[in-house]
Amino acid sequence: MRICYFILKSMKLHLSEQKKILFIKTSVWNSIKNIFQVKKDLDISKYLISIKILENKVIIRTNKPIFNSEAILLEDDIKGEINQKLKKAEIDFEFDLIYK
Q1: Looking at the 3D structure of the chain, how many domains does it have?
Q2: In this structure, is residue 6 part of a structural domain?
Q3: Cα(91)–Cα(70) distance, rounded to whole angstroms?
Q4: Digits of tens for pLDDT over the chain (100 positions)?
Q5: Percent helix, strand, coil in the chain (nearest 5)?
Q6: Which of 18, 50, 70, 97 has the least CB density, counted as fewest CB within 10 Å?
Q7: Can you give the residue range of the structural domain that contains 78?
């Protein structure tokens, strides 16, 4: 049992650049959804339109300006959860969140 755990623990994900970008976008989307569900008891799926990555900026398009204001207030929690997911996948990515 310990040998299997060690093998799994030592296996590193080797993701292509496209898969890294997809993983980051998915992590951002899911983290935003999760934080709003936990903190505000709100399903925000209908407000999120898209997530785009430009250099070190993650651009989150929404259809509600009030959502953008709420997201900015929760940004530390959102970034913390995203960073936690990226760290587990061993992806080094410094970023800023921008809501439009």
Answers
A1: 1
A2: no
A3: 27
A4: 444 444 445 445 677 889 999 999 999 999 999 999 999 999 999 999 999 999 999 999 999 999 999 999 999 999 999 999 999 999 999 999 999 9
A5: 55, 15, 25
A6: 18
A7: 15-99
